[in-house]
C-alpha cells in the first residue's frame, strides 16, 4: 500500500461517485450495473484477505444481440481529505465470463485482495477513527462479435465505523500490535542487524541469546548518552516527581538494559538465571519500540 499526499480539493470526490452502482458498457450499450454489496476483512494464514462482494445484474437484449464481459477486476484505494492509499487489485475468487441473454439475471461475485498487517495499519491511519471510505474502480473487457472494448467505472463505497471495527476484531487484527522501525540511510546498520538477529534467536528458542542481543541494540541507541542516563537515574532517586518526560524515558531504557544484564554475562551467578519465550519477546518489543521512538524523532 502506498500513501501519497494531495491537496484537499483534489481528494474530494465528485458528487457522481457517491452513487449505489457501477456501469459496464460496450460502446453506447449498457450491459450491467454492478453494485458493491459488502466489504469483509478476513484472517488468512500469515496475511489478511479483503473480500468485496459485487451484485451484478446483466441486462437482457431481446433483439438477440450477444455481448460478453470478461477479465473483470477491481482496483481498491482508501482515501481521506489528505492522502490516498492504494490497497491493490482485487481479482475474482473464481474466474468467470458473463454473456447477455434475453432476460436479465442477477448474481453475486466475490473479489479478493490480499493485505499485510502493515497495509491495514496504514489503512487505519487514513481512516483516522471514522468510517472507511474505499474508492473502487471496476475494469473489464466487453466484446460483441470481433469488436472488443475496455471499460471502467468508479464509485465510493463506505464501510461504517462500527462495522469496520467489528471486522478488525473478528479478523484478530487488533490482537497484534505492529511496531515499525524506519529503515533508511540514517538508520545504523548494526541496529537493524541486532533486531533481526534477536528475532531469529527467538525462533530457535535461544532466549538468553535474544535478550543479550536486545541489550546490544539498546546500548547502540544509548551510545554517547551514558552521562545523561546516569543523571536520569540520579534524578529518580533524588526527586522522582520533578523528572522531565525525556529523563523518564531514559530511566525506562536504563531499566530495560539492566534487566538484560544477567543474559549478557557468563559468570556463575548469571548462568543461574533462566529465560522464557515471554521474556525474550518482551525485550525484543522494548528494543523495537525504543528504536522506532528514537529514529522517528
How would you characterize this protein structure?
With 297 residues, this protein is α+β, with helices and mostly antiparallel strands. It folds into two domains: 2-175, Immunoglobulin-like (Sandwich); 189-295. 36% of the residues lie in helices and 31% in strands. The protein has nine helices and eleven strands. The protein has helices spanning 8-11, 117-127, 161-170, 189-203, 207-221, 226-238, 245-259, 268-271, 277-295, and strands at 2-5, 24-26, 29-32, 35-43, 48-58, 68-79, 83-92, 98-99, 105-115, 132-144, 147-159. Strands 1, 4, 5, 6, 7, 8, 9, 10 and 11 form a nine-stranded antiparallel beta sheet that branches. The protein has a two-stranded antiparallel ribbon with strand order 2-3. Strand 6 and strand 7 (83-92) form a beta hairpin. The longest helix is centred in the last third of the chain and has 19 residues, at 277-295. The radius of gyration is 27 Å and the shape is elongated. The chain starts with a strand and ends with a helix.
Amino acid at each position: 500500500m502506498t500513501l501519497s499526499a494531495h491537496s484537499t480539493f483534489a481528494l474530494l470526490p465528485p458528487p457522481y461517485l457517491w452513487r449505489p452502482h457501477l456501469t459496464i458498457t460496450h460502446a453506447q450499450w449498457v450491459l450491467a450495473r454492478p453494485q458493491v454489496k459488502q466489504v469483509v476483512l478476513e484472517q488468512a494464514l500469515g496475511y489478511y484477505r479483503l473480500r468485496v462482494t459485487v451484485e451484478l445484474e446483466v441486462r437482457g437484449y431481446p433483439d438477440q444481440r450477444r455481448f460478453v464481459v470478461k477479465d473483470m477486476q477491481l482496483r481498491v484505494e482508501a482515501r481521506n481529505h489528505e492522502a490516498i492509499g492504494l490497497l491493490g487489485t482485487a481479482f475474482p475468487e473464481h474466474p468467470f465470463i458473463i454473456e447477455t441473454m434475453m432476460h436479465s439475471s442477477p448474481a453475486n461475485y466475490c473479489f479478493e485482495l490480499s493485505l499485510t498487517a502493515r497495509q491495514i495499519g496504514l489503512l487505519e491511519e487514513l481512516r483516522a477513527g471514522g468510517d472507511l471510505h474505499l474508492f473502487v474502480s471496476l475494469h473489464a473487457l466487453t466484446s460483441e462479435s470481433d469488436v472488443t472494448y475496455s471499460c471502467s467505472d468508479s464509485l465510493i463505497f463506505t464501510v461504517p465505523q462500527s462495522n469496520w471495527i467489528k471486522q478488525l476484531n473478528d479478523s484478530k487484527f487488533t490482537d497484534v500490535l505492529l511496531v515499525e522501525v524506519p529503515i533508511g540511510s540514517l538508520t545504523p546498520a548494526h541496529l537493524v542487524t541486532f533486531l533481526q538477529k534477536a528475532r531469529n534467536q527467538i525462533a530457535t528458542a535461544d532466549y538468553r541469546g535474544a535478550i543479550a542481543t536486545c541489550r546490544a541494540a539498546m546500548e547502540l541507541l544509548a551510545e554517547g548518552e551514558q552521562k545523561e542516563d546516569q543523571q536520569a537515574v540520579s534524578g529518580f532517586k533524588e526527586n522522582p516527581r520533578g523528572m522531565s518526560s525525556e529523563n523518564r524515558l531514559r530511566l525506562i531504557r536504563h531499566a530495560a538494559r539492566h534487566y538484560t544484564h544477567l543474559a549478557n554475562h557468563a559468570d556463575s551467578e548469571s548462568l543461574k538465571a533462566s529465560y522464557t519465550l515471554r521474556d525474550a519477546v518482551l525485550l525484543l518489543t522494548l528494543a523495537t519500540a525504543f528504536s522506532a521512538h528514537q529514529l522517528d524523532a
